[in-house]
């Protein structure tokens, strides 16, 4: 198990044969892409439109390398555990039950943020589209039955497991990725450099403030860490050699990252050149996504049709993807608590997924009815993500002797990014 970190090298040297890239690997690449594109197309273009070119470029320059290093570190550190299982179990193995409970709670909060944001976006955007296309006179988002029906169906699909998600999400994500590129091209006739603010904020402090405030949006535009542990566990279940399983997980992550960087950046900058800062501020005030905004303000049926289709497909597939990690985190917390007070039986384990599905549906519906801003949620919950996704893996590398082999300068960069994410909300208070 100690050689997992170098598994890709030792496999190639001993067998001389390349590990095949199967349809199962491709399915996880697709799910990683689906997990990331949802947040990227919903939030980042609006923030770029508000803050301008140079602030956005600086935030992206910090975030994208950090996401690459972070994903690799996350997979390697979790794979090195003796028994690759849910996040809580792995942290418990490394640091003990109490630490496992504390860290799994933070992990759960991070994933809950994503679930809440996607649930709200699904409801509000679908209601917005029904109005735009004349199906309804008023928004259905304020009702209780509309979000309950939509979220209930989504949770029911997502809770059926990865194999069904491959069948349901796979085609959706392929369509989504294609539309991202087509939509970016379709918006090119509406490019106008006059829409873009190329002036840096006045003073170094203002520039640093705006970069740090924009940092969460840049990170979340391509991050898919929420699905890495479920993917890691899945490869360990189908692959007898842990080193091979880790190699396959790392390879799937690398392919997803490359595809995301190219496609998301092209779409985001195409949007930036097509939408004014005032229009971006309007979308934020109305709690609607960049794509719903594009359907409203850019003339022509092509952009409206593509943006509508992409928004629906993107958010649905991202919701399905993040539910795997959310279920994993909530299950870990429940089991951690239950094992302290009782001896679990087969009935408990069988009913637990149903209980999680029902609780998730009710919680998400209540959040949507409360109508709290999704962008505000993303910004203020960033410290939890910085701790769980950046600082904890780095801490494990320095704390756990078995992970010593992963120490490198890239780990320090990930830790630095985690600190920036933790303090980012403080700089939000300094905005005028």
Automatic annotation (TrEMBL):
One of its GO terms (cellular component) is plasma membrane. GO terms for biological process: amino acid transmembrane transport. This is Inner membrane transport protein YhjV. It is found in: Cell inner membrane. It is a multi-pass membrane protein. Coiled coil: none annotated. The chain crosses the membrane at residues 26-46, 99-120, 140-158, 170-191, 211-235, 255-275, 310-330, 351-370, 376-398, 410-430. It comes from the Bacteria. InterPro entries: Amino_acid_transport_2 (IPR018227). It comes from Pandoraea terrae. Keywords: Cell inner membrane, Cell membrane, Membrane, Transmembrane, Transmembrane helix, Transport.
């Amino acid at each position: 198990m100690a050689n997992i970190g170098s598994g890709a090298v030792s496999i190639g040297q001993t067998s001389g044969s390349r590990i095949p890239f199967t349809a199962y690997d491709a399915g996880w690449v697709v799910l990683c892409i689906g997990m990331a594109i949802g947040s990227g197309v919903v939030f980042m273009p609006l923030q770029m439109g508000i803050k301008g070119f140079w602030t956005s470029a600086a935030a992206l320059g910090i975030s994208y390398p950090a996401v690459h290093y972070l994903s690799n570190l996350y997979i390697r550190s979790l794979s090195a555990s003796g028994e690759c299982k849910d996040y809580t179990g792995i942290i418990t193995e490394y640091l003990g039950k109490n630490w496992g409970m504390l860290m799994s709670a933070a992990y759960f909060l991070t994933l809950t943020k994503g679930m809440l944001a996607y649930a709200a976006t699904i409801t509000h955007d679908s209601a917005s589209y029904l109005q735009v296309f004349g199906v309804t006179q008023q928004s259905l988002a304020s009702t209780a039955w509309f979000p309950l029906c939509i979220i209930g169906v989504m949770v029911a699909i997502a809770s059926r497991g990865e194999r069904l998600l491959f069948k349901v999400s796979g085609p959706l994500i392929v369509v989504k990725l294609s539309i991202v590129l087509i939509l970016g091209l379709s918006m090119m006739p509406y490019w106008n450099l006059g829409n873009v603010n190329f002036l840096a904020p006045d003073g170094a402090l203002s520039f640093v403030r705006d970069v740090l405030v924009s940092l969460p949006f840049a990170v979340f535009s391509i991050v898919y860490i929420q699905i890495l542990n479920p993917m890691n566990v899945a490869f360990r279940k189908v692959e007898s050699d842990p080193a091979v399983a880790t190699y396959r997980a790392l390879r799937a992550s690398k392919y997803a990252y490359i595809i995301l960087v190219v496609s998301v950046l092209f779409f985001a900058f195409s949007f930036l050149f097509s939408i004014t800062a005032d229009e971006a501020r309007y979308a934020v005030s109305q709690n609607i996504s960049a794509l719903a905004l594009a359907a409203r303000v850019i003339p022509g049926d092509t952009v409206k049709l593509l943006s509508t289709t992409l928004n629906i497909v993107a958010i649905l597939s991202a919701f399905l993807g993040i539910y795997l990690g959310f279920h994993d985190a909530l299950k870990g917390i429940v089991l951690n608590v239950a094992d302290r007070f009782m001896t679990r039986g087969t009935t408990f384990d069988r009913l637990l997924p149903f209980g999680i599905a029902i609780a998730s549906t009710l919680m998400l519906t209540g959040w949507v009815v409360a109508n709290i801003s999704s962008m505000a949620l993303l910004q203020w919950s960033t410290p939890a993500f910085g701790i769980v996704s950046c600082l904890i893996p780095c801490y494990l590398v320095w704390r756990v002797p078995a992970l010593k082999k992963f120490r490198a300068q890239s780990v320090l960069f990930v830790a630095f990014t985690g600190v920036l994410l933790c303090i980012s909300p403080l700089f939000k208070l300094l905005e005028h």
